[in-house]
Amino acid sequence: MSASAPTPHTAYLGLGSNLGDSLATIGQAIHHLDQLPHSRVLACSNAYRSVPWGVSDQPDFVNAVVALRTGLDPLRLLDHTQALEKSLGRVPTRHWGERVIDVDILLYGQHLIGTPELTIPHLWLGQRAFVLLPLLEIAPDAHIPGHGSARDLWQKLRHKTPHKPQKIGKIMW
Ligand code: AMP
Question: Please, are residues 11 and 70 in contact by the beta-carbon 8 Å criterion?
Fold first, then answer.
């Protein structure tokens, strides 16, 4: 008897990089995400250039958000995204510091998850313009469980965002 197919969900992942060829690395990361078991990339935002958040003495970031249809459960997905970060050359640095690649699980369907390894929706989602803007580009009606619509979150945040992330173009993956 064959194992039943895992139930797919749509997850939204935030990608960021500010070391090396960030645009190319984000493209490679998206390509790998599309190759994960039971997974395919449904949509990918443009790339955005953003000023660093939290720790300012580092280069600007390139950011993007992808929608991933996946049958991986959230913790398996985290295992894969962490392995992907390592394979693309990420090494531990200071908290919120510079990195070759960062992959965050922003949303996993409408699930609310709070375990030692994983918080979904991602903890800082509502406070980060470099996440909300690309997310809204590919999911204008996104609902953040426990927080409301992504659009409303951005309306509240935009007045506190002196440097709005700038769209810099499409990502090749
Ligand atoms: P970062 O430095 O942003 O890559 O954070 C990595 C740490 O955040 C890991 O220890 C993860 O287990 C934890 N983490 C908690 N929630 C999430 C999430 N939604 N997506 C990715 N990592 C998460």
Answer: yes
